[in-house]
């Protein structure tokens, strides 16, 4: 092809290996940000550093245009596994880095496809080039054609499929180093956790609230959790599940704390006060009142629930509005328009499904009437609440809250030099602090 460099100096696939393995992390939604994009990138890199804690070796992070390069003396598959947990990256691509020269890039591309063909004969391929270094001697399309020809020349008549290839060899051409990748893992996408503030998730043991928490994280919210049990009238199974769920969710964010509140006595008082068919909505109002007060203690700016419109009787539009009226913070419902199967599928993909199916004693079923009203009236709810001393009731619930730290280890709580923990929640007296509940560490 006119203008192409000579192939005489191109080494065979058995020549020197590329200069090192790394992982390419393609940025997600933050590429749409304007002049404050650097703040989102800094948050994203802070979260990546946290995900790498305890990885077992030194690592390095290099920032590029809409891409982060990760490497170190740690096995590449370990780096990939840790990076796939970091919300804010659209894709995670194992790669090799080579000097920016036609010879080195071509050698790496040939070796990559030769390795794939050794395991999967007959695969089709395509080459995609992104030229960040505009002084490179060929345009992206010219280099794609050149590389495709050199690969077929070195390996024989490898079939090409430009529309749906089995293997896509991606080349990122930078100024000093370039990157060759041929495997792409889907990343979580979204905004970096913590870039939108802090929220408190009402975490039950079911499918919905863990998925809602994950979705809130993808919108940049750093999440703490509150779980209400039916104690002393129910056993501790739901607390074990909540701990395991929070631990799994903390894989995607700087570890959030789990607050456990025993609601059973308060639920009984509502029943004695004559809540009747309003019982479930009344106790949900109490939950958001307590959660709002707790959120104030930990500097959270919103509540998150797993409600899906019309999924159960307590989640009709009228009942959701009645619950919201008792909150003093915005109540966010990321799953409001989701169907149940969509929620279950997402739970499976984020790793919470197998925990959610475990048996427990749900506090929402405690003292629940045979039929729940579909349209709770505020006047009727307030009438029931007036028969209680709500201030005294809430003070007692908040005084006895237990605080747990799911998923934290000594390594994870040690702050890296140069990347201090951001937005630490203020220390406040009162609640008991404890580690994992007995048996929780063995939950799946």
Quick take:
The chain has helices at 37-51, 76-83, 102-119, 140-155, 208-218, 237-249, 264-272, 279-298, 317-324, 340-350, 353-356, 378-386, 390-399, 410-413, and strands at residues 20-27, 59-64, 67-72, 89-99, 125-131, 167-173, 177-181, 185-186, 197-202, 221-229, 258-262, 303-304, 331-332, 402-404, 432-433. Residues 1-18, 410-433 and 439-444 have low confidence and may be disordered.
Task: Explain what this protein looks like in three dimensions.
The protein is of the alpha/beta class and 444 residues long. It is 35% helix and 18% strand. It contains 14 helices and 15 strands. The chain has helices spanning 37-51, 76-83, 102-119, 140-155, 208-218, 237-249, 264-272, 279-298, 317-324, 340-350, 353-356, 378-386, 390-399, 410-413; strands spanning 20-27, 59-64, 67-72, 89-99, 125-131, 167-173, 177-181, 185-186, 197-202, 221-229, 258-262, 303-304, 331-332, 402-404, 432-433. Strands 1, 2, 3, 4, 5, 6, 7 and 8 form an eight-stranded mixed sheet that branches. Strand 5, helix 4 (140-155) and strand 6 (167-173) form a beta-alpha-beta unit. Helix 3 (102-119) packs across helix 4 (140-155), helix 5 crosses helix 10 (340-350) and helix 8 (279-298) packs across helix 9 (317-324). It starts with 19 loop residues before the first strand and ends in an 11-residue tail after the last strand.
């Amino acid at each position: 092809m006119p203008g192409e460099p000579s192939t005489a100096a191109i080494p065979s696939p058995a020549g020197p290996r590329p200069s090192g393995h790394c992982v390419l992390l393609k940025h997600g939604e933050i590429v749409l940000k304007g002049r404050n994009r650097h703040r989102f990138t800094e948050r994203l890199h802070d979260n990546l550093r946290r995900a790498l804690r305890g990885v077992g070796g030194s690592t390095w992070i290099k920032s590029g245009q809409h891409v982060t390069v990760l490497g170190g003396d740690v096995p590449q598959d370990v780096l990939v596994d840790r990076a796939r947990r970091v919300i804010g990256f659209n894709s995670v691509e194992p790669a090799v880095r080579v000097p920016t020269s036609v010879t080195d890039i071509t050698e790496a591309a040939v070796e990559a496809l030769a390795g794939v063909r050794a395991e999967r004969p007959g695969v089709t391929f395509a080459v995609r080039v992104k030229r960040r270094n505009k002084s490179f001697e060929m345009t992206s399309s010219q280099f794609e054609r050149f590389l495709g020809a050199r690969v077929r020349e070195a390996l024989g008549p490898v079939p090409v499929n430009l529309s749906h290839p089995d293997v896509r060899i991606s080349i990122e051409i930078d100024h000093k180093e370039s990157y060759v990748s041929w495997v792409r893992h889907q990343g979580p996408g979204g905004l970096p956790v913590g870039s939108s503030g802090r929220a408190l998730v009402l975490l039950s043991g079911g499918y919905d609230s863990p998925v809602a928490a994950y979705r809130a994280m993808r919108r940049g919210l750093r999440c703490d959790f509150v779980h209400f049990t039916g104690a002393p009238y129910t056993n501790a199974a739901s607390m074990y599940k909540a701990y395991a769920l929070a631990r799994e969710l903390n894989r995607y964010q700087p570890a959030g704390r789990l607050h456990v509140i025993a609601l059973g006595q308060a639920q009984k008082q509502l029943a004695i006060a004559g809540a009747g068919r309003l019982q479930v909505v009344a106790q949900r109002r109490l939950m958001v009142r307590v959660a709002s007060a707790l959120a104030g203690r930990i500097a959270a700016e919103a509540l998150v629930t797993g409600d899906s419109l019309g999924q159960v009787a307590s989640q009709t539009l009228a009942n959701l509005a009645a619950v919201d009226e008792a909150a003093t913070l915005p109540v966010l419902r990321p799953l409001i328009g989701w169907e149940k199967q969509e929620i279950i599928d997402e739970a499976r993909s984020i790793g919470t499904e197998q925990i959610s199916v475990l048996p427990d004693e749900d506090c929402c079923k405690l003292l629940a009437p045979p039929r729940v009203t579909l349209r709770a009236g505020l006047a009727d709810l307030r009438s029931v609440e007036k028969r209680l001393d709500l201030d005294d009731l809430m003070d007692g619930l908040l005084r006895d809250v237990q605080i747990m730290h799911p998923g934290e280890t000594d390594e994870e709580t040690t702050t890296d030099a140069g990347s201090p923990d951001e937005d630490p929640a203020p220390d406040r007296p009162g609640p008991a602090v404890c580690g994992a509940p007995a048996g929780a560490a063995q939950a799946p």
